Predict the 3D structure of the following.
Amino acid sequence: MTVRVLNKGLLTSIQDLGRYGLQKYGVIVSGAMDKYSLRVANILVGNKENEGALEITLLGTSLQFENDRVIAITGGDLFATIDGERVATWRPILVRKGSILQFKSPLKGCRAYVALAGGIAIPEVMGSKSTYLRAGIGGFNGRALQKDDVIESGVMNKFSTSLFNKLDKRNADFKWTVNYDALVNLQQTQTIRVIRGTEFNRFDEKSKRTFFNEPYTLTTQADRMGYRMEGPPLSLAEKFELLSEGVTHGTIQVPPNGQPIILMADRQTTGGYPKIGQIISADLPSLAQLQPTAKIHFKQISHEEAETELLKKEQIINEIKIGIRFKRL
Amino acid sequence: MNHFFTDAIIKPLGDSALIVQIGEGISPSIHQKVQALSVLVNNYPFDGFVESVPAFNNITIHYDPVVVYQTQMKNLVSNHFPLTPFQIVSSKVNELFQYIDETQNFAARLVEIPVLYGGEYGPDLDYVASYHKISAEEVIRIHTQCECLVYMIGFAPGFPFMGGMNEEIATPRRETPRLSITPGSVGIAGKQTGIYPLETPGGWQIIGRTPLDLFRPDLSPPTLLQAGDKIKFVQISPEEYNEYKERKQ
């Protein structure tokens, strides 16, 4: 036994980097909404980057530790406290037996990640620990965490064990923190970069301009499946029928009401609405940190720039990895 | 390039996927080409290939641009200018076209789907019958006659997008969708017929229910149906329905 859920909060689920290879059967990918924060949380405690961790949404989640355990909290700043004291995030910390970790309110961002050293001891379903909420599979019994659920942690590797021993011995936090600024943006008004979607040219001239010039607001209908946006309506130059076809994380669809929907981690595998744009992969984690009512400016960039941005972020993750390894020596 | 695929167009779906457009509209011959490419890309995956999703007339290829790029940099000859991940994947797909065997015919699996029609399991059967001014028995007869082709799976795990239903029983969707449809429900929406694998809201006219599980997460593959399958609906009695259900437990 390691962690007991005292309060489930708004939505707390176990997610890794997703369930791949089965979209042709209609099995959705799921996985963390903010993949960079999940990866860094795992790196910080010595786990594999794609290990499952807790994804905490906005507020209310409260967890009690039944053993000493090294953890890392990353992602949005949800006012995390341990036994009432503000706790350091974006660095490995040692939580003592009996302590209570609480997420009180979303100060910055929307989703926090808690990685346990040794990972989470739950079986993989179809190759992943991610929770597929609608089908009721994966994660913790296929569902969001509830009060009194007990999460078992896995066995720590050599790295995690040495971290544990070091933190145990010094009996104080490390002084360093990962600088996440260049990786994830936690601001609530954001410029999100977009490349043209496959049906961009099917929209009328006004819509094509409006989409990149006017801000759109994230509505309260924003969850792991998709973000419904509100703003100047977008319309097609002329009506046409689109057959269902593959979609992906960040695809921006426009249904007949003209209000764009951004497909997120729990999106369906295929969709039949015209796609005006596609959020670049490098900006998806920042998008995951927006709360309802946040404002988004969509900025058009080229496909090649999007690829460059993604490679740049990967370089930042690499630097973080090297930095952490260096600090442990 | 093989002339089988001279019409193919490759277009990006964001920076981590691309769509190979193989033709227009819905037809068994285009479906054959989609299947052929789908088999090839899965049999000869390139470094960074994640997965492929076939649709009516195109196939989406998901890839990891970071892996694609890093693989290139590892093997790059010093005086060569590096390509973008999209350029690399596009050229890999173009290479695959050359290996298409035009003479290959994909033998479709024929899957029989037992259905208990009408009653509480098919609450819209009578509506469909009265809409066409025929008897419920006639609707069942026509529905069990068709041999439907599964063009693709989408919307929910194991949900088949099928073609080939006799248009004599084509019926518009319900004006008010149901909030919850029981898994296994067999429905009609326009010219399409389909089966709901999970409990979801939906507007299809529900004419019956199959006792089979369409989504079986503990098996590989995790769905009863796959793109390329042929389906035949078979009418069963309430007793047979219960027998199927009992056998499963």
About this structure: Chain B touches chain A through 47 residues (CB under 8 Å). The CA atoms of residues 211 and 242 of chain B lie 8 Å apart. Chain B has six helices and 13 strands.
